[in-house]
Amino acid sequence: MSKFTIERVRTGIPGLDELIEGGFPRGDTILVAGKAGTGKSILAVQFLYKGATEYNEPGVLVTLEEPPHLIKRNMMRFGMDLERLEREGLLAIVDLSPSKERTPVMVGEYPSFDLSGLEAIILSHIRRIKAKRVVIDTLSIMAYKFRSRDILREEFFKLCASITGEGCTLLLTSEIPAQDTGLGVFDIETFLASGVIVLYNEKISETSRSRSIEILKLRGSKHSSRIHSMRITDEGIRVWPGEIPGH
Amino acid sequence: MAENTGTADTDNADGAIEILFFKSDSCPFCPRAEEVIREVIGEFDPGVFRLVVINVSEKPEVAEEYGVFALPTVVVGGMSVTGVPEPEMLVKIILGSRLSRKRRTTR
Lengths: 247, 107
Fold this sequence. Notes:
Oligomer: heterodimer
Number of domains of chain A: 1
Number of helices of chain B: 3
Distance between the termini of chain B: 26 Å
CATH superfamily of chain A: P-loop containing nucleotide triphosphate hydrolases
CATH architecture of chain A: 3-Layer(aba) Sandwich
Strand order of the largest sheet of chain A: 5-4-7-8-3-9-10-11-12
Number of strands of chain B: 4
Shape of chain A: globular
Number of domains of chain B: 1
Helix content of chain B: 25-40%
Order of helices and strands of chain B: EHEHEEH
Strand order of the largest sheet of chain B: 2-1-3-4
Mean pLDDT of chain A: 92
Structural class of chain B: alpha+beta
Number of helices of chain A: 7
Strand content of chain B: 15-25%
Low-confidence stretches of chain B: 1-13
Largest sheet of chain B: 4 strands, mixed
Shape of chain B: globular
Largest sheet of chain A: 9 strands, mixed
Largest interface: A-B, 29 and 36 residues
CATH superfamily of chain B: Glutaredoxin
Helix content of chain A: 25-40%
């Protein structure tokens, strides 16, 4: 056996690191997919919060959907004060949510564009705060903003390479449409990432649902192949590595 | 305002219709889009438009402020077109912005 070991980035999410050999491989792109309400954004922001507060790794949160004031309010419920991290230079929130006052209404789109603007915006924040972790939440919103999906697919690959090329570990969230069986609206999400985590919130009876998490793939890692119980507690997401739903 | 960023190439005088053009150093479509915009502007009297060019590679914060991240993008009167625009489309949004401006002033 080779003694070569891959450097790991601890997520700090209780129970999760045990399932993935201690953390995500540093510099990789990880996809967190799930239907609406499964906890994707909480997991993603918790990854940044823990990085900043426990591992001295500043992070950039790129929000394409939810406005920052709502993200901050929601995370405060778990005792995670994002505003404080911003003040301390440990977190940068890039607000590209559609609700911004100055955002123009797009009345025309021609299939001759790239995402070099997004790349420039994200890289400027990475360099400013020397970020080691980046979250883009959520990739899926791009499918509703732009029609030219072929361009987006190609541009996502370039964008991911550019961010990880800065030494950052990138976490993308992807919303699985309600009736869909894939991992997102672009059909390429799984190829973009070297790791895929799927979150579930399945109805188990007329009156209750059960949350769970699955590590679908994680290159370079011996990860759990089972589906594990997960809960959203007062302190954010917690995974129970030994607990299998329905058992 | 984009004019105050120091990145803008400002054509024409104040009081003109402002056209914001977002481009980057690496975007292969941006030079052609800028040509189209300048051709359309050239068909009108001087002083009708003020073109503000924002190079996102140099001033990403301006693009972030406007929520513009796909390039090239042209913004006129709160409306935008992404990609290399057809001249007719540009004229259409310019007219649209003039109409909405008139509506505001006659209220």
